[in-house]
Amino acid sequence: MTTNPPPIDSMLLRKTLGCFPTGVIVVTTLGDHGLPVGMTINSFSSVSLEPPLVLWSIARSAPSHGAFRTHPGFTLNILSDEQQLVSKQFATPSDEKFKGIDWQPGFKGTPVIQDAVAVLQCKTYQVYDGGDHEIFLGEVVDFKSSDKKPLVFYNGQFVDLATDTSTH
After folding, report:
1. What is the CATH number of domain 23-150?
2. Where are the domains of the chain?
3. What DSSP element (H or E) covers 70?
4. Which of these, 18, 20, 30, 72, is most buried using a 10 Å CB contact count?
5. Each residue's pLDDT tens digit, 129-168
């Protein structure tokens, strides 16, 4: 006789997943009429160097889901520790997410946010089913990085990274 495991408590799972510290990213693309679209994410991973591939996921219910499905590219803006307000602005549903945001058009016009720690401009390579999310695999077509400290999210809040005082 096979016993089924008990159902997963989604809130407890979310709390458990929050034990993994992540960087904070604003992923951007263009939507209807070429208007910029963006949202804060922390579901990101490198996949491959040959070819250069990265992935991230988006809830199917997200208002910007359709824009990411339609546009052939996206930009991953990895935020600096000085960009908490940018993170919060893009995490809040609004038609004015780009109000006051300094950005320039990148690959296929996708917004590149200024002062980010790093930027990965990507061509959509493949989209996969991921339950209530879709997983976007992107081929990196351009990138840049800096020595700024990244914005880090852990256990439901922003945290500071420890400073490395060792000598190299």
Report:
1. 2.30.110.10
2. 23-150
3. helix 65-70
4. 30
5. 999 999 999 999 999 999 999 999 999 899 988 766 555 5
